[in-house]
């Protein structure tokens, strides 16, 4: 009887520990995920900085960040962002074509949220 009680308590403790470990993760807290440039001049690149904080309890590692087209260059931190620390994903758009645009940056990381899509838009004027 005592053995079964001890075994049950130990099993419960292991289950709780495994559950807690599973929920420990990195997490993004973005200042914004959509940016509107408004009207911008044709042929003049514009840059947006998407600021974030690691609001999780594990180091945040950005594996890759890519623009939706060749007209967008993306820069992102290559080093792990520790819990509570901040960083930014920077997207520079080369506005060649006149008209409205909506572009995205896909951010792959170890964050609990999985893939994050950042969006910027505006209108290129002649």
UniProtKB/TrEMBL annotation:
<keyword id="KW-0732">Signal</keyword>
<protein>
    <submittedName>
        <fullName>DUF1573 domain-containing protein</fullName>
    </submittedName>
</protein>
<dbReference type="InterPro" id="IPR013783">
    <property type="entry name" value="Ig-like_fold"/>
</dbReference>
<dbReference type="InterPro" id="IPR011467">
    <property type="entry name" value="DUF1573"/>
</dbReference>
<dbReference type="Pfam" id="PF07610">
    <property type="entry name" value="DUF1573"/>
</dbReference>
<feature type="signal peptide">
    <location>
        <begin position="1"/>
        <end position="19"/>
    </location>
</feature>
């Amino acid at each position: 009887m005592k053995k079964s009680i001890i075994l049950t308590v130990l099993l419960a403790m292991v289950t709780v520990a495994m559950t807690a470990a599973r929920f420990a993760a990195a997490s993004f807290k973005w200042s914004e995920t959509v940016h509107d440039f408004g009207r911008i001049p044709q042929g003049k690149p514009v840059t947006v900085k998407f600021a974030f904080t690691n609001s999780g309890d594990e180091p945040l590692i950005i594996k890759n960040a890519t623009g939706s087209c060749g007209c967008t260059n993306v820069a992102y931190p290559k080093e792990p962002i520790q819990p509570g620390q901040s960083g930014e994903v920077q997207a520079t758009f080369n506005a060649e074509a006149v008209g409205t645009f909506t572009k995205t940056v896909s951010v792959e990381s170890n964050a609990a949220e999985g893939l994050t899509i950042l969006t910027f838009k505006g209108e290129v004027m002649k």
